[in-house]
Amino acid sequence: MLEDGVTTTLLCTFFIIFFVLILNFFQYLARESYIHIRDVTKEHNWKSIKKENKAYYCSICESLLLNISGLICDSCGVCADPTCVKIADKQLKCKIITTNINEPMNHHWIKGNLPLNVICDICNEDCDMEPGLTDWWCCWCHRCVHDDCKSKLSKICDFGKFKLMIIPPSSLEVINLRNTVRRRLRLCKVIPPNWPQWNPLIVVANKKSGNNDGAEILSLFRRLLNPAQVVDLSECDAVAILEWCRLLGKVTCTLLVAGGDGTIASLLNAIHKVGLKPIPSVAIIPLGTGNDLSRVLGWGKEHDLNKEPEDILQEIQIAEKVELDRWTVIIKPYGGLGLRSSRQIFYMYNYLSVGVDAQVTLNFHRTRKSRFYFYSSRLLNKLLYLCFGMQQVVERECKDLNKNIELYLDDKKINLPSIESIVILTFIMGCWC
């Protein structure tokens, strides 16, 4: 009986180890260090219209869509009810990501479901004033025209007012990965278009972050740009994202990062690690809890969900470029017997803290990484910070920090008063707001 029990235990242990190894293997496949692009020839990138504030009509049967069930492609704007989705995937082409045709591209017209308050590009009259699928708009340049005015507009699309931020389909070369576990296209080459002052924008966000704000950001910018240049951090790491910059060669690009201080810092670290030349500019959409770095650089303390993505692109176009200091922090821990263990190297962009505020942040970080942290929101995170802060007011774990730490400036020891924290700030002239 004892031998049977031991055998059963060993088999269970072996099975668990095997399962964990297989799981890690598939997670490794899911986060490869190169850029995967969704194959739009198969289907549209559907999302629900629940959060939309206008009426939509099915692009197939032309019926009015209900908010609880209607779907819209966040890349090209085609709409469908659940029963027409498969027909729409077959009959209506999505916004192309890449093409082998090295010729001026024609407009990609979408019938009906125009944005609110748009004007015809030909007659300057209001469009989409009647119910149903009326009038047309191009999902690349976003020009809108009446049915009668459509023939008067040039067939060639110039990509609109954000042309210099867009990577045109003719500039991308991909490899079809049909034999891999994940059937996608792999980006292998970027051919710069012959456009003066071309400065492509790469949008980076994690669809799982915050209150699903990251997913909404990704969706909004797929409509304005080439969907290939909108990258989800949950599907690849920061180094893979920077493959865009490497493939662009001597062309300087801009990275629009939607996230908190941690996401931005990890991307800045990756830029330093890869050693990119030229160094890309970084713009920020603040989706974190504190968003200190975003405030310092003038991008605001919190993202306004009602802000149009076109406004963000215009802000990037006129933004002033500033250099950001990067500080190396070396930690050399000592054991109880005075033995030195291996040192750790970190990088500081905004501030470095030792003491009570660092303890509060550490407690919050441990809570967020806990398996019991099911729901994430900016308000909940701030409440957690408040709770951990109040805890330190009562417990004072960092009391008399000056007795446990020595501070030297230019090799001169500083006499510290009774303190609970030391904060080292890096200041950017003219950018604090």
Structural topology:
Elements: H1 2-30, E1 36-37, E2 46-48, E3 71-73, E4 79-80, H2 85-91, E5 109-111, E6 136-138, E7 144-145, E8 172-176, E9 185-190, E10 201-205, H3 213-224, E11 230-232, H4 238-241, H5 243-247, E12 254-259, H6 261-274, E13 281-286, H7 292-296, H8 309-318, E14 327-331, E15 344-348, E16 351-355, H9 356-368, H10 378-395, E17 407-409, E18 412-414, E19 421-425
Parallel strand pairs: 10-11, 10-12, 12-13
Antiparallel strand pairs: 1-9, 2-3, 3-4, 5-6, 6-7, 8-9, 14-15, 16-19, 17-18
Helix pairs in contact: 9-10
Domain Phorbol-ester/DAG-type: 43-94, 106-157
Domain DAGKc: 196-333
Organism: Apis cerana (Indian honeybee)
Shape: elongated
Let me know the largest β-sheet. 4 strands, parallel
Lateral strand order in the biggest sheet: 11-10-12-13
What is the CATH architecture assignment of the domain at 169-318?
3-Layer(aba) Sandwich
CATH class of the domain at 169-318: Alpha Beta
Percent helix, as a range, is 25-40%
Beta-strand level of the residues, as a percent range?
A: 15-25%
> What is the strand tally?
19
Overall residue-averaged pLDDT value: 82
Query: How does the helix and strand content classify structurally?
Result: alpha+beta
Family: Belongs to the eukaryotic diacylglycerol kinase family.
Protein name: Diacylglycerol kinase
GO biological process, one term: phospholipase C-activating G protein-coupled receptor signaling pathway
Pfam family, one: DAGK_acc
